[in-house]
Amino acid sequence: MSFRPSHLAILATALAPLAAGCGDDKRPVTTTISSSPATVAVADSGTSATGGEVTTPSTAPVSYADAEAAYTGREYDEAMDLFAAYIRSNPDNPWGHYMYGLSSWKAGDPEQAVASFDEALRLDPQHRKSLLNSARVLLETSRPREALERVERAMSIEPLSGEGLRLLGRARYELKQIPEAIDAYQRAIALDERDGWAMNNLGLIYIQQDRSDAALPILARAVELRANSPVFQNNLGTALERTGHFAAAKTAYEAALAADSTYGKSAASLARVTPHVEGDTTTVDLAALVTEFQAEVRRWRDSTVETDSAAVRDSTVE
């Protein structure tokens, strides 16, 4: 789709920076595994000056389930305290350290999170969730090279992991290894054709490469999967706007704001594109683009199956 001459100058000067949204859903993966609760609850007693018995209050035992309930209830500071108490009584349980790490991360203490994940990995070097979630923390704190090392370790444990491939794409992207990032996202999507975050991230890379035509089918599918995502809708709107589909872009920005009325990027984009909607006679069939993309994914799957099978063979210890 080419631009009308009257729109070229507008887009060259008015388009704001692209929407932030190269990431994943950032929801750390918890576990349902529980361990025996701490059972030590010592009460010291004595005698008062008047002869009455004085008892120091008992310290209630902290169970894994109680601590995890605080985490799932999003009481992250409380979860931190409870898991800290839990691991004092259960220092050899890697899952306790892992959940302490998740709680610390969500409570805003990334350094404690990494240290806790590292302790889980000391106890269990194959603790894949600690590798992946510590990689997320490292990516969020601008340490992509360290993150990449952990993702690659996790991939050596489970090569056919969509989650691992998506994080691999993020790490490669942050390291400016764009072809490798594209390959990782394509493999993640081939493995899980409902991975909307991998699609969003891949589409965003194409937009940044001035390949918005290539981004459109990918982002249309991401929005089909998660229409209530303001990030996905906003990035689809950006791709539509950059390919001259102003009316359709307006609809996408409006959908982003319907999902999150505080999403500032979409508000600014909507204000920018609205004056150019009148007289826009272009049409775009998003459903047809989705069908086109799904056919492309099948081709990716066919071309990667041999590579991924070889990766599984290489990771198998005989």
Q: Describe it for me?
A:
The chain is globular and about 70 Å long. It has 318 residues and is mostly helical. Helix 3 runs antiparallel to helix 4, helix 4 (94-106) packs antiparallel against helix 5 (110-123) and helix 8 packs antiparallel against helix 9. The chain has 15 helices and 2 strands. It has a two-stranded antiparallel ribbon.
Content of β-strand: under 5%
Q: In one word, what is the shape?
A: globular
Please provide the count of β strands: 2
> How far is it from the N-terminal to the C-terminal residue, by CA?
54 Å
Order of helices and strands: HEEHHHHHHHHHHHHHH
Q: Which structural class fits the helix and strand makeup?
A: mainly alpha
> Describe the biggest sheet?
2 strands, antiparallel
Query: Helix segment count?
Result: 15
Mean pLDDT: 84
Low-confidence stretches: 1-19, 29-58
- Helical content (DSSP H or I, runs of 4+): 55-70%
In spatial order, strands of the major sheet run 1-2
Radius of gyration: 25 Å
Oligomerization category of the chains in this entry: single chain
